# Entry
Amino acid sequence: MSAPNGKGSTLELTGIFKAYRRGKERFPVLNDVSLKVQAGEFVSLIGPSGSGKSTLFRLIGGVELPDQGKIRIDGSEVTGQSGLISYMPQQAALFPWLTVADNISFALIAAGTEKKAAKEQAVQWLERIGMKSVSKEYPHVLSGGMQQRVSFLRALLMKRNVMCLDEPFAALDALTRSDMQRWLLELWEADMRSVLFVTHSIEEALVLSDRIYVLSSAPATVLRELVVPFERPRRSNVWTDPAFVEMKQEILDLLEAGKAERTRM
Ligand SMILES: Nc1ncnc2c1ncn2[C@@H]1O[C@H](COP(=O)(O)OP(=O)(O)OP(=O)(O)O)[C@@H](O)[C@H]1O
Ligand SMILES: [Mg+2]
# Structure
């Protein structure tokens, strides 16, 4: 299911329920979540902390199983199957026993690149994210934001048709963050893989996405699905558009209403 023609795949989740056990209590996290990412589409998920976004990603990645519901890629059921998507977990999960460069070449080799070429390309890719100087270091000596960038690069290079990125830029300073956003958009526009992207930044979601799902607090349901209307390639100052400001407010209101609901409970 790699991307020979450079096109994304359709990812479809239907009726996903998931609960965890805490002692004797059952704690529902996802409550009938259904969503779709069309081939080549960029879709973001926004929802309060603890609403179940990372849980949803672990289900899509096949690391855990839903209690109910189905996950399909291009129409085939893949619930519980791992290795089909490029997945960047919220906590950078680099191999501590490999150098930064070897972490990257690992992804390239997994995507079919020959070993020697992978080693060369790894250093070139690290140069593109401004991290060539640490290519021979081990991950534990990097800052959190640096680890996040390497982890992001590794997910990109996995070359699956569907990419799930869980707050990939949360630990970055504002300038590096906007550089990485621009870079992600360039790469996405070039090969149009399908992206499902989690962020707490409404602006980031509006700048990057074709559509946004707003989730409620746990147990998460889809509160609203919004189509982001700004044409591509997006202007760098798209945030000055009145429609942008309006949509930002709409999402804020939804999240606020959810919060008010929670404090009443
Ligand atoms: N393995 C687990 N066992 C028990 N509870 C869990 C487990 N994993 C997650 N949870 C709980 O499920 C809920 C949702 O967690 P999750 O990490 O999916 O939230 P999130 O939306 O990604 O939050 P954030 O925005 O803070 O990253 C939380 O209350 C969390 O404590
Ligand atoms: Mg999370």
About this structure: DSSP finds seven helices and ten strands in the chain. Residues 20, 29, 47, 49-55, 90, 218 surround adenosine-5'-triphosphate (ligand 1) (CB under 6 Å).
